[in-house]
Inverse folding.
């Protein structure tokens, strides 16, 4: 409940996110490969993670981090 939901995006989803925000991988916020959440997902450098955070005020918010 206290930990937000993480998931690895497919290459197609990753491309859509980059196009949607008109950006590239170098400009995305980063998450280290040794982060515990990354380890549980078995994500590798270059993977794009979608993080879903919930709050009583904002509802659900999506955040994206590239694994480095």
């Amino acid at each position: 409940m206290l930990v937000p939901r993480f998931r690895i995006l497919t290459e197609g989803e990753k491309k859509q996110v980059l196009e949607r925000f008109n950006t590239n991988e170098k400009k995305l916020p980063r998450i280290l490969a040794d982060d515990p959440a990354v380890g549980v997902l078995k994500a590798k450098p270059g993977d794009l993670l979608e993080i879903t955070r919930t709050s009583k005020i904002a509802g659900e918010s999506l955040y994206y981090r590239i694994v480095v």
